[in-house]
Amino acid sequence: MGAWGTGPMENDAALDFAGDLSDGPEDTVTAGLRTAMTGVLDTDDYIEGSDLDAAIAAAALVAARIDPAVPIGVNGRDHLGRSPFTVDADLRDLAARVFTRAFEPENNEWHELWSDGGSLDEVTAALAPFRAAVDLPTQS
């Protein structure tokens, strides 16, 4: 899996994605975030773990831009600082949907790997602050 922790930036695919994104102009960064997230959301095909790792990294960057207190780690902070983008309602929605999709087991290698490794509860807890940052409060 190339992961050394359960955080969203603690795996090779996430850091590769964030590295490719860093230092680009805002429109390129925003497009890269959207592409990573829609790539896993707009398919009924089997989602490779590395593709979901990149999408989760994109969603985590969005969450960290919304709430600087989320524990994105030193690598995430570095990439966030070098990646200019503004969070709009669409990016926020995509990020929320990515976190939801990550925990749906159907056609999902990422979920299989964490579940088979006995660490699904740990990764769920690690991503909880990020999910909270992008979840919009429900209107009553």
From TrEMBL:
Superkingdom, natural source: Bacteria
Classification via Pfam families: DUF4259 (PF14078)
Protein name: DUF4259 domain-containing protein
Native organism: Actinomadura alba
Taxonomy of the source species: Bacteria, Bacillati, Actinomycetota, Actinomycetes, Streptosporangiales
